[in-house]
Amino acid sequence: MGKIRVKTFGADLDEIEGARLLDKRGGGFKKKSSSAKASEGHEQKVEVEAEKTVVEPEVKEEKPRSAKASRGKKEKFQKKQKAFHSTQYSSLLLKVDRNKTYPLSEALELLLQLQRNKFDETVELHINTLTGEISGNVTLPHGTGKKTKVAVATDALIAEIDKGVINFDVLVAEPQMMAKLAKVAKVLGPRGLMPNPKNGTITDKPEELIKKYEGGQINFKTEGKAPILHLTVGKMSFGVKKLAENIESMLKAVKKTNVVNVTLKSTMSPGIKLKI
Question: Do 161 and 192 reside in the same domain of the chain?
Fold first, then answer.
């Protein structure tokens, strides 16, 4: 095999060549100089560096999710959905046709069948309206079954409201108190409790207005972020006839031309869609 000459940097070439000739003439190998060793070491380094190759990083292919894992995830989700409603509620839900709109009398008969008999549940109407900012008041023929707490605006009451304490359902104010109530308007406004002329809660005779509210008059107003009304129209103990009269009075006050759809329900029951 022939000799390979490697060009070396950092050493005297004449000195290296002379050392090689001496080795040949003497018939043996002599101790190499430090410079030769350095040169040889450098040669080895150069040769090693030349043999280096670039190794591409190994890319691991992502294994597709197995059918078993996907099925397990789906089953877990379904279990959570079932756990959302109790067994009793789910059985009541089967009695209601979610794709049907019921006449009022039929809806009320069905509602009584959905009662759980644990307590006298409140009957509610949830009305989606064409537009927002629908408000007014109505006196239900048979009241709501709940005593309405009415408060009159005073300096002491405003101080409590400012601290977040609200212990009333309706707030009545005399005209001269409205400037002071502006301080807590951000607290009362979103709750629909701010006195205003539209719902008749600003009056010079608050005592007379208190009697009306205690006699069954209620205010209503669509939510600030959505055109929807949440209304109380009585108790399950009222029976079909009284509940029907209260609901008819409520729909008349809201005006059927403003109504998109209505859902009837009690505190613990599924919703029943009403035919308007």
Answer: yes
pLDDT tens, per residue, the chain with 276 residues: 455 554 444 455 555 555 555 555 554 444 445 444 444 544 444 444 444 455 555 555 555 555 556 666 666 655 555 545 567 666 666 778 888 999 999 999 999 888 876 789 999 999 999 998 898 889 899 988 888 889 999 999 999 999 989 999 889 999 999 999 999 999 998 888 899 887 789 999 898 888 888 777 888 889 878 899 999 999 999 999 999 999 999 999 999 899 999 999 998 888 999 998
Q: Is residue 29 part of a domain?
A: yes
Q: What's this model's pTM, rounded to 2 decimal places?
A: 0.58
The answer to whether residue 3 is domain-embedded is no
**Are 134 and 229 spatial neighbours (Cβ–Cβ below 8 Å)?**
yes
Distance, in Å, from the CA atom of 81 to the CA atom of 76, rounded to the nearest integer, reads: 9
User: Helix, strand or coil for residue 151?
Assistant: strand
Distance CA 275, CA 144 (A): 22
**Tally of CB atoms within 10 A around 207:** 9
